[in-house]
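hiii, so i know i said id send this last week but things got crazy w the move. better late than never?? heres the sequnce for the chain we talked about at the cafe, plus the structure i predicted for it. fair warning i was half asleep when i ran it
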Amino acid sequence: MPNTHHSTRHIRAAELLDQVSATGRGIQIVESLSTGLNTTRDLMFQRIHHDVERYFGMDSMSIPVSLDSSEYNAKTEIDIWQVVEAADFIRSAGLVGDRAWATGWLGELRLGGSFGNGPIAQRAMEYLEFDDEQRRRHFASTIEKVYPEARRSPLVLYQLMPHAVRIVVSVAFGATAEAANQRDRQAFLLPGILDCRSCKGAVLDNGETCVDCDNPVWNYKWLLADD
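okay and structure toks below
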């Protein structure tokens, strides 16, 4: 009998994963992925909204008509991008061989049936057409249109985020060496993240957040430290 603590969507995703991989850890991977991607999505939104207001104040020209709908739209866009970024990494790291399968699988996991609808599917297809650098730039441009406050976010935030998503995937699949490699790439971009007295820049378990620096998506005290 399925564990009633797992959602139907998670159970279905775990079954599908177990069919195409030999891990036998479908439900653990799915739960870890979901928790980790929730964390990176929510922290990313904090960076483009709360941190912008805290450090730069509220720009009256950027105030959304509806904060609730703007937050929903921004987080949906982050999730669409995360799905494509994670699926591409799952394929390139050899965790699951087919990117199209991984994209559809993660899309259903993250966004449910809405992933198959016209606008969301179209935005995912746009991201799929780009290489890593083009996809990062397109994400930054799109999120700034969806949520204008994001225009004041530091460039390094967008440079760090792809690696944050890859770390989530690596941790979920138990690829600890690859997670460490992705953290090294982040430290190259922003060396100061290794100086946090609490987490020391270590890779955290999915769903964990450092109380001081907000690792895995660092707050502005750290993002702006090397400016």
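btw DSSP finds ten helices and no strands in the chain. thought thatd interest u
miss u guys!!
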